[in-house]
Design goal:
It is a single chain. About 50% of the residues lie in helices and about 0% in strands. By secondary structure, the protein is mainly α. The radius of gyration is 20 Å and the shape is elongated. It starts with 12 loop residues before the first helix and ends in a 9-residue tail after the last helix. The mean pLDDT is about 80.
Length: about 80
Amino acid sequence: MIVAHKIAPAPNNQQATYFAKAAWKADHNLPKPSQQSLRRQLNAIKREQFPWMLEGSKNAPQMAIIQLAAACKVSEVPQEGGG
């Protein structure tokens, strides 16, 4: 037997308005950057703007870029209503 609580938010009008303003809306018209383009952009600016990045391992920024690209792919969920 699986026991679980089902909780549904019931915001009032003021809360619903706030949630609508604060919610991040994906703009599907914007191009999603590829890992390669993100790496190129970072490599172009890191010597000037982030020289401390050269002192450590390249693994940390590389994994951040990989995870960002994965997050962009996950966020491409169809909108409600078939959009």
